[in-house]
Design a protein that fits this description.
Layout: E1 3-12, H1 18-29, H2 39-65, H3 72-88, E2 93-101, H4 105-115, E3 119-124, H5 131-144, E4 152-155, H6 163-171, E5 183-189, H7 193-200, H8 209-223, E6 231-236, H9 248-257, E7 262-266, H10 275-291, E8 296-299, H11 307-318
Parallel strand pairs: 1-2, 1-3, 3-4, 5-6, 5-7, 7-8
Helix pairs in contact: 1-2, 3-11, 6-8, 6-11, 9-10
């Protein structure tokens, strides 16, 4: 019996050049699950306005993120694939793909099709279920495997409350003396309020994004033995005022105004260091916090491909 595991993350440009960033943004932002509007209007908005103006600035940010090994998001995904493969040995074949960019999900699924799998476990690497991430990836997988008849496919929708995930996030804070900080902030990727409302009114309670994020914060805080006065939850990377709040920038300014000089930030929306964690929080919001009277803003790395996370992820997949 041939069995496979498919790991999916959002994606990354092939390089931090304006050309490659432009190509990536076009693919990403033209996804109807990301920007909900009629296709023609979305194409005009994305291809004619957003991408031309956003690509040069985004390329500068990606240049700040890029390492000698390339995009951290891709590096950690491939490392995770290799480490999981070593754990499962010959029982499963582990595959890794990006919903946008390379390695392309369509090509990876084409490769799996040639392997004639009997069973496939699909894990979108998004702890919290969201339309623009989890549902988009699931829909793409279903479309690309529509003619598969022999293979049983199982999806894992979310793992935001999984004890192993919580322990893995908390373990990343071991190098930090929590008592040295005035406050701990858990920052999550924001979403359009329309999508949040739709998720919270669905039959699946796990699809209520904001409640899921607050639940993750509470569980990590318990793992770290923090009381409620020591931490807050906020939302970053918003596109407009009609996105989920409180906004991370507002919370950081409020902390500085209250005299909180040292802040430690976790980004549990992401399982791998990326633009939104490393650059947005670790650089841009750090500067913002200091400009507004703060002194120290430290960023806890994502779980990446840490050994603790590999062990717990395997349990999530094979439960």
């Amino acid at each position: 019996m041939k069995k496979g595991i498919l790991l999916i993350n959002v994606g990354t440009p092939e390089s931090p050049s304006v050309k490659d960033v432009r190509a990536y943004l076009k693919e990403f932002l033209n996804d109807p699950f990301v920007i909900e509007m009629p296709a023609l209007l979305r194409q005009l908005l994305v291809n004619g306005i957003i991408v031309p103006f956003r690509a040069p600035k985004s390329a500068q940010r990606y240049q700040e993120l890029w390492t000698n090994d390339g995009s951290p998001l891709l590096v950690h995904l491939l490392n995770l694939q290799k480490k999981l493969q070593a754990k499962v040995k010959d029982e499963y074949q582990v595959y890794a793909a990006m919903n946008y960019g390379q390695p392309a999900l369509s090509k990876v699924i084409e490769e799996m099709g040639k392997a004639a799998l009997d069973e496939l476990i699909v894990l979108p690497l998004f702890p919290h279920y969201a339309q623009s991430t989890t549902l988009s990836a699931k829909t793409a997988v279903k479309a690309f495997t529509a003619d598969w008849r022999q293979c049983k496919i199982r999806f894992i929708d979310s793992f935001h409350q999984d004890a192993g995930f919580i322990a893995s996030v908390a373990a990343q804070a071991k190098p930090y003396d929590l008592s040295a900080y005035d406050h701990i902030l858990f920052s999550y990727h924001s979403l359009p309020l329309k999508q949040v409302k739709a998720g919270c009114t669905s039959a699946e309670k796990a699809h209520c994004y904001d409640k899921a994020c607050y639940a993750t914060s509470e569980l990590i805080a318990q793992e770290l033995q923090l009381d409620k006065s020591q931490y807050s939850t906020a939302f970053q990377s918003r596109f407009s005022k009609k996105w989920l709040a409180p906004y991370t920038s507002d919370v950081l300014k409020e902390m500085a105004d209250k005299g909180k000089k040292k802040v430690l930030v976790f980004t549990p929306s992401f399982v791998a260091d990326c633009l939104e964690s490393t650059v947005e929080i670790g650089s841009e919001y750090r500067d913002f916090f200091i400009e507004n009277g703060g002194e120290v803003l430290d960023l806890v790395p994502c779980v990446n491909d840490s050994e603790v996370w590999v062990e717990h992820l395997l349990k999530i997949i094979l439960h």
